């Protein structure tokens, strides 16, 4: 059964580790992430952007697929199905479809509007027992066609949103979605520290987990980050492994063209990436 992310994140915060959110794109992604989490006894959050939801034929299809896998793969670790960077409409659709966790990204609205819309969702999610992530200070890079330059969140605004009673808070601290540019100056730990001071116990979320050096990840966890989002890194390792299979002409040998064979190296690569991230996050064995 899908669970809210609340308990796993509170445990992570108290235990000084982070739970990974791995975004899914299709059946293989979902299966590989779930199998790895189960094998490593790690709690896990499956992230679904609105674009990926559309690609997978809608949120109801996603819920059906994930619930089917929890049974079919005998998954016993806590799994949350989470809308990533949702609009208000997307959040409503995911609540109706059966997601167990929602992110409403109101970071591009003026703070008053972000507060108003987040409040409406806090009440709904409370009643339904869903976890809710809010965002302050846009995260840089490109996500579903929206390009942001990467801001640092205002700690006072973070407190206003946190005080609404959200479960977890994503705050921009110079992090970027996608690949980091060579001249990226790194995470703003000074900003993270002042946000943590103002929001107290609230688990913090670090988006754009691909390519942040391990020491920065560990420092961010020590400063209150309890959830780290990984998306691009699985895509990069999947496509590199698939490229290798095709370039080596393995699809031309015997039944190498069978889609289950073509996709197998990419699947192994996703599993390796998820494992590597979970090791860094410290969530292995915490389920
Ligand atoms: Zn993000």
Could you characterize the architecture of this molecule?
This protein is α/β, with parallel strands linked by helices. It contains twelve helices and ten strands. The strands form two sheets. Strands 1-2-3-4-5-8-9-10 form an eight-stranded parallel beta barrel, surrounded by nine helices. The chain has a two-stranded antiparallel sheet with strand order 6-7. Helix 2 (27-40) links the parallel strand 1 (19-23) and strand 2. The structure holds zinc ion.
Summarize the entry for a quick read:
This protein is of the alpha/beta class. It has twelve helices and ten strands. Strand 4 (101-104), helix 6 and strand 5 (131-136) form a beta-alpha-beta unit.
Topology:
Elements: H1 6-15, E1 19-23, H2 27-40, E2 44-49, H3 50-55, H4 59-72, E3 79-86, H5 88-97, E4 101-104, H6 111-128, E5 131-136, E6 141-143, E7 146-148, H7 155-162, E8 168-171, H8 189-199, E9 204-206, H9 214-222, E10 225-230, H10 232-247, H11 259-262, H12 264-281
Parallel strand pairs: 1-2, 1-10, 2-3, 3-4, 4-5, 5-8, 8-9, 9-10
Antiparallel strand pairs: 6-7
Helix pairs in contact: 2-4, 2-12, 7-8, 10-12
Bound molecules: zinc ion.
The site of zinc ion has 6 residues, from loops.
């Amino acid at each position: 059964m899908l669970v809210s992310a609340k308990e796993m994140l509170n445990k992570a915060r108290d235990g000084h580790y982070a739970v990974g959110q791995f975004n899914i794109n299709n059946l293989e992604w979902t299966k590989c992430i779930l199998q790895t989490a189960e094998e490593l006894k790690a709690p896990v959050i499956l992230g679904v952007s609105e674009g990926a939801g559309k690609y997978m034929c809608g949120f109801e299809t996603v819920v059906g697929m994930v619930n089917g896998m929890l049974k079919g793969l005998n998954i016993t670790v806590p799994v949350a199905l989470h809308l990533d960077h949702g609009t208000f409409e997307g959040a409503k659709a995911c609540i109706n479809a059966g997601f167990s966790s929602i992110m409403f990204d109101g970071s591009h609205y003026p703070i008053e509007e972000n507060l108003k819309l987040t409040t409406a969702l806090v009440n709904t999610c409370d009643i339904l027992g869903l976890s809710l992530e809010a965002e302050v200070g846009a995260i840089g890079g490109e996500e579903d066609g929206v390009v942001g330059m990467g801001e640092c969140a205002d700690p006072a605004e973070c407190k206003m949103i946190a005080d609404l009673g959200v479960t977890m808070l994503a705050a921009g601290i110079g992090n970027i979605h996608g690949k980091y540019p060579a001249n990226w100056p790194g995470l703003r730990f000074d900003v993270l520290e002042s946000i943590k001071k103002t929001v107290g116990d609230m688990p913090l979320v670090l988006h754009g987990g691909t390519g942040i050096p391990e020491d920065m990840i560990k420092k961010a966890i020590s400063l209150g980050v309890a959830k780290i989002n990984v998306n691009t890194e699985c895509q990069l390792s999947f496509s590199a492994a698939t490229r290798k299979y095709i370039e080596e002409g393995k699809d031309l040998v015997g039944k190498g063209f069978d889609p289950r064979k073509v996709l197998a190296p990419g699947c192994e690569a996703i599993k390796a990436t998820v494992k590597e991230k979970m090791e860094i996050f410290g969530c292995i064995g915490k389920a």
